[in-house]
Every structure is written in structure tokens, then in C-alpha cells.
Amino acid sequence: MTKTRKMCFDRLLPTEPVRAQRVRPYGPHGTTRDRAISLIGKQWPNGSTITIRFLEGSQQQKDMVREISPEWTRHANLHFEFTDDPTAKIRVSFDAADGAWSYVGTDNASIPLHAATLNLGWQDEGVILHEFGHMIGLSHEHQNPDGGINWNEAQVIQDLAGPPNFWTPEQTRHNVLDKYRADQLHGTVFDPQSIMLYAFPAEWTTNGFATEANEKLSAVDKAFVKSAQMYPGSQAPAASATPLVVSPATVASIGVPGEIDLYKFDVPSAGVHVMQTLGTTDVFMTLFGPDDPTRKVAEDDDNGTGRNAQIVASLSPGQYFVQVRHFSPTHTGDYRIMVSR
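Predicted structure:
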């Protein structure tokens, strides 16, 4: 009998299954070598401080998380701040009956403050690093569309129907068998050493392929999270943001492949605002705030004219941040950006 495995599962927002998304293949000259995988639009602003609160747990459990999870920040330009603040972005629970899971990246900012955003139903170094990998925006490596895993579906469904997962066939398909669509991902080649890959036995594949449990970040994990497409450099997002005036348009450029531009503007009184880009460059826009460069308000790809981005939102008073990147990380181009009301 095949030994059953403890598996993580994705927490998705209600709109996620129907959200239209597009692919961004990473790597030099459009290739997809030596990278992990990340869902489009899930990254926190580069340099963010992510606040983390424990909803429960023993001192030992909390100490393990405090000790192990910041390994990501040795490579990604992010900072983890453990706090008792009830408005913390990440809320960690330790419910042994609820498995191991996390919402992905900035989806965490959409979850009610009373609810957990990450659960550690069991704990070891690999599980903590894996779930915090989801938290910073990484996806499951075994669902990489370039992975080429030939699943023995009947065996996988049978094994995961038992303890400790007790998944239905639909849950197993979602969490293991179904690959992400290419248009959902920053696409890459498969990394068998990734911390985002769980161990599974040869009986789960039709060609005898198996993986071992990974307890450490792989070389590819480390390289990807500090790359220009994820969290490079050392500047905090608020400090590095360019002031954006309310009309006319500001002239800008994606001058280097993978560049991410960040702007800020103030809203003195509540009202509907329009953030938009102009020109022929295909860009992707994300809005954060108020007064918080890690709280995602909205994002957009092509709702403007042509390939331009446009966000229309009713904003309360405060300071807001607009992040702009090229749709393709290998391309550059000029654009203009403006905010109006």
C-alpha cells in the first residue's frame, strides 16, 4: 500500500477560478530557464514589510516560525515583522485538523482581519518555508505547466482520499493533478529541488518518476525571489516611489527588462479616481493604499485604450501607491501615466 502524504493546498479567492490572466515567461531572451513559478499579479511591492500575527499556538510553535520563515528575507527584498497588531497582514493559525495552506501573495490583503491567512497543521522546516513561499507569491512547483509529470491519477486520488488529507477527487485534482494554465503564471521550467515541490512516490506517476522531500530553499528558489521580476534591491517601496501629480500625464519608461516602476499620490478628499497609462507599451498596473504600500486595492492589465491599464476606484483620503511593470519581463518601452478624478 502506498504511504499517504501530507500535502499543502491552495487557498483561492472566490473570483480566482474565473479571473482572466496571461502568461509571463521569465528568463533571458524569453526563455524559461532557472526560475521558480509565481502567479501573475500576486507579488507584494518590492521592499515591503509584511506584518505577521499569531492567532494561537504554543511558544514552541511560534518560535519555530519566527526562526525559520525569515530565511526567505535573506534572498527576497522583503521584511517580516512579527507583531500583536490586530491589523497584521498575515495571521497564522496552527489547526491540526485543517492541514497546511496559505493564501498566495497579495491575496492575503483581501481576507477579513479576524480570519487566518496561513495555517500550519503540522510543522517542520520544509512546511514552514513552503507555506511562507506561498505567502510571498510563489506557486506549487508540481503544478508547473512545464513540469511534464505523468500522474497515475487513480492512485493519487485513492491515496489522498485517506488520512491525513481526506480529499475528495475534486480537491485532489485542484491541489495536485491539475496544472496551472500557462496564462496564470510567470512560466518556468520544472525545478525538482524547489521548496515549493512536495514529495510524492513513484506509484503516483505512470513512468516511475518520484520526488524527495525538500527541506531547504533550492538555488533556483533563491535566485528567483531576488530577481528583477520578484523582490530585488534594498529600497523600501514608499521611499523609492516617484510622486505622481493629478493631471497632466507623467512621462515614464520601462528602460530595463523586468523593471518595476512605483508611484505615489495623495487623495485629500474621498472620491472616484482614474489611474491610467497611455501610449503603445503593454503594461500591467497595481494600486495599493491608503497609507499602506502593501495593501492591494486593485490591479489591471488591458482595461484602458489598446494595451494600456486603467483602474477606476472610489478612494478614501490618504496616500496611494501605483506599481507599473511591462506585461512581458523581457520587453521595454515608453508610456505615460496619470491620475484624475
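Summary: The first strand starts at residue 8 and ends at 11.
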